[in-house]
Amino acid sequence: MKVKKLERLKFASLLLIVGFYMFAGANHFISPEFYYPLIPDYLPWTKAINVISGLAEILLALGLLFKPTRKLSAMLIIAMLIAFLPAHVYFIELGGCVHEGLCVPAWVAWVRLLVIHPILIAWAWWHRK
């Protein structure tokens, strides 16, 4: 009985993570102006980075749906999340506020980096098998 509950939980979690990254990826195209100020100034090609990030999130989410590509997609999501770390650090350096955009208390930016980001990595790791 416990195995079936875990299988149902993992399936529900899989659908949730796929939906999460599909929405996040699509949002890069729906509201690109939200993401531009979050990309560190020292990185060139802000618009290209935004498009590549959005496409990566969508494609990797789709890859999670299929057993043959699930492990690779999960590992690439983890790599992508690691690649996003400079943006999180940059947001902290800005004090949690970007010019004419997202503004949260600085502690929220820290929680995003130190708590939410590792949870997202663990979530992808759980779905690698």
Automatic annotation (TrEMBL):
- Segments spanning the bilayer are 12-30, 42-65, 72-92, 104-126
Q: Which domain of life is it from?
A: Bacteria
Presence of the UniProt keyword Cell membrane in the record: no
**Keywords associated with the record:** Membrane, Transmembrane, Transmembrane helix
Ranges in a coiled coil: none
Q: What is the protein name stated in its UniProt record?
A: DoxX family protein
